[in-house]
Task: structure prediction
Amino acid sequence: MLILGIETSCDETGVALYDPAAGGLLAHTVHSQVAMHEAYGGVVPELASRDHVRRLIPLCRGLFRDTGRSPDELGAVAYTEGPGLIGALLVGAAFARGVAFALGVPAIGIHHLEGHLLSPLLAKRAPQFPFVALLVSGGHTQLMRVDGVARYALLGETQDDAAGEAFDKTAKLLGLGYPGGPALSQLAESGIPGRYRLPRPMIASGDLEFSFSGLKTAVLHLVRGADPSAQFQADVARAFQDAIADVLATKCTQAMDQTGLTRLVVAGGVGANRQLRALLDAQASRHGYDVFYAEPELCTDNGAMIAFAAALRLRAGARTVSRDAHGFSVRPRWALASLEAI
Ligand code: KG4
Ligand code: ZN
Result:
């Protein structure tokens, strides 16, 4: 069955075509709105919604053109139902439901984090269930136990800022623009390890909860009134990245011990961070577990993960929206662990 996936939860318009019978992912395209929001130092929700409206049709046309497939072949349309910005979600949902209705095929609403969580299964080296998943994005930092599609249990999560948010806010303090995660991590590569040491919040809390807002404040104290040389900036970036990677990797190892599972899956934008990956790989070989990552281009928001999650859900027998149902809603706030088993 050919599935069209639509992702519009925040500032990326992602579209994809997925066909399990034709090799899986056929094509996916992401339009990032970063350049548009940069001037404001963060995402402006109304601008995000309007840009999704502008991009969806040309992006989907491009998908069909590039793959030689036709909308008439679609068996289902999947879209991000939540969580995310309400206006942005409504654009994707309205578009997807409209396409599904016009073609007389079912639509299926997908949880954005389920998309991230399952995206490592699209990689060449894919994990088997069950596994522990570390979800580290701009809006979420969670450790989940995953026993199968739609079988998720929350092990621990951040009490305040998400890891990506901490990267972005710290990058802003260092004048690196928005979103600063990738820029900060690049700057950290030229920083001297150990030149500064920042706190590792909640690293010894004994549970799987996180807290990152204090880290940003510690950076603020460090940079206030300091010499703004390029090397100083790089050293601070390195100290920040060391602290955050240390906390994330330590809690992952604790989660592996606690659950007794042997596979760790890393998903979400911060999962692209090279230093975090290196540290996780080192801890994994020391503690005897395997780590699996999403392909770098599928770590950040994309339509492929939405189409793929829909394919797995449909195969597991998930219900779709009736093709006659005209009303729809989105869920800006939606806990992943509240998803019912199929
Ligand atoms: O998963 P994602 O695309 O969007 C959300 O669902 O939030 O994650 C975006 C986040 C941003 O905070 C961005 O700064 C961060 O992921 N990010 C990184 C890196 N690449 C993206 N953070 C650290 N290192 C990176 N290489
Ligand atoms: Zn995301």
User: Anything to note?
Assistant: Residues 112, 116, 137, 301 surround zinc ion (ligand 2) (CB under 6 Å). The first strand starts at residue 2 and ends at 7. DSSP finds ten helices and ten strands in the chain. The chain has a mean pLDDT of 95.
